[in-house]
Structures are given as structure tokens and as C-alpha cells.
Amino acid sequence: MKKRIDYKKAGVDIDKANELVKRIAPLAAKTDVAGTIGRIGGFGSLFDGRFPGMKEPVLVSSTDGVGTKLRVAMEAGRFDTLGIDLVAMCANDVVTLGARPLFFLDYLATGKLDSSRAFSIISGIAKGCREAGCALIGGETAEMPGIYSKDDFDMAGFCVGVVERKKIIDGKRVVPGDRLIGIASSGIHSNGYSLVRKLFSGKEMKGRFAKRLLEPTRIYVKDLLRLGEKIDIKAAAHITGGGFYENLPRVLPRGTAVSVDKAGWRVPAIFRTIKKRAGLEDEQMYRTFNMGIGMVLFVDGKDVSEAIKCIKGSGARAYDIGEVIKWARREVII
Fold first, then answer.
1. Which domains, and CATH codes, for the chain?
2. Fewer CB within a 10 Å sphere, N or C end of the chain?
């Protein structure tokens, strides 16, 4: 008689996945915002498409992951902050255009479902959604033996926001003389970890450097939306992969460049440690990491003091870190 092999023996535990959905449903419910319809668990997720008070609502979307920071979390055996990172990477991109995040969905794929680990990750996602002011309305947890090894996993996030058309922040009005306001990062955020992992031993990632390396990405949604009600934000750049050199030119109009003043803020110790261990020059560091500045705003010179005051009032540190200059090419001068 042939030996019977069911789906569970093949490596996929449907019952365990269903139980996880039941556990995370209350977490998702706590993220509900105006417009949320129904609960997670269906074939699709619903959200009310009416936006009272908006004449020309424009939807803004973003998708991202957290890269090889996952491997640091595995080394440390700590997964509670990864979900915050995931929301931050998407919601921070959405808000750079002036949009208010509406809802978020996640995708978690693994070789073998570890319910405790998955619940920790999704708890972080729910926490990040509450911080970003958006609803966790759905997601997918996929058990994929043969694609991922038993302990491996990957994750991605999807965020949708809305902004009034006339209030879109797109950088078109940036002119020479505008100032750059840098908002402090909470650490490395979620980029550069393929290099970081080569510089710190497994013992260090489990021990004295674990907290600093896994510090979750700051979510800038409330900072920007609050400031946008007070002053004109002409452009915003989320400093992610590619650091200053790749991200700042993305919002510059033709004929301009930015001059960044490194003396405008103190680079956090973790970046100084990385630089020393890697033996990198400043240019390579500023092309790879955020160097302590996670978001850069472009404002008129007359609004600098008000911008810094407002951002500090929301609990973040902000600095005047440079200016827009007339230049032949869109580039960054540091």
C-alpha cells in the first residue's frame, strides 16, 4: 500500500495558518480608521472610496520590504520591531507626496510557519499602522517549503494613501535658495544591512549591538502632516537605499542641486562605528546610509525656524542641513 502524504506532511499546516488569522484579527481591528469596512479573512479587503471634504482626491501607493535586516533579527531572535519597519518603509514613501496613509496590507512568506514569530511580526505591523494612522485591512501568510528553508522568511508591505490634487508635494516648486530640513532617524532604519552584517559578528548581533541594529524605522507621517498644515513643504525625500546621493535628486527640478552641510547635525555613534570598521570614505557612507537623517524636507528660507519648531513639537529632532543651489545637473554636493 502506498504511504499517504497529505498537505501537512508536505510541509503546509492549514490549521496553524487559520489559527494565526484568528489571533491577529483583534490586532487589525485596533487599527481601524474612518473608511474601514469589514474584517480581515475574506478574499479581498474593503475600504470606503469616499473622502468627505476633498474635491479631487488622488490615491498614492507604495510597496517595499525590510531587506536583509531580517537576517539580523534572525541572529538576535527578536522579531517584534520588523513589522514597524515594514509599515515605515511604505508609509514614509506615501507621505512624501503629502498623502495621508489610509490602509496597509502585508505579505509574509516562510518555509515553515512559526506562529509565535509570525504573531510577533504582525503585532509590530499593527503597531506601525496605529503610528502611521492607517488601517491594517488584510494580508497573506504563505507557507512555502522548498522555496524557503525551514527558518527563513521574507515580508513585503503595501500602503495606499490619499491627497488633495492641489496639495500634492512633487518638488516642482523647489527653487535655488530653498533650505533643507533634516528630520533625525531612529538609527540605521532598513537599508545597508548587507554591509552591516559583514561588520558585526553573530555574537554582537545577539548581544550588545542587537538593540541598536534592530531599532525600528521612524514613521514620519504625523510629523509631515502636522507641519504641512502650518507651512509650505515644497518637496520631501525619504532617505532609504542609496542614502543622500540617490534620494535627494529624485525630488529636484532641472537646473538645481543641493549642497548639504555635514556640520548641521551630529552623526550617531552607530554610523561612526560602521565607518571605522568598514574603512569607508564619507561619500560611500552617505551613498549607503541615512547617517542620522531619515527624512529631508525642502522649504522656503523664511519657514526654517517654524518648521524646526513644529517638528520638535511632535517629538522629533530637526536640523537646517543645507540649501538648494542653481546647478547644471541634479546632484548632491556634500
1. 14-167 (3.30.1330.10), 179-333 (3.90.650.10)
2. N
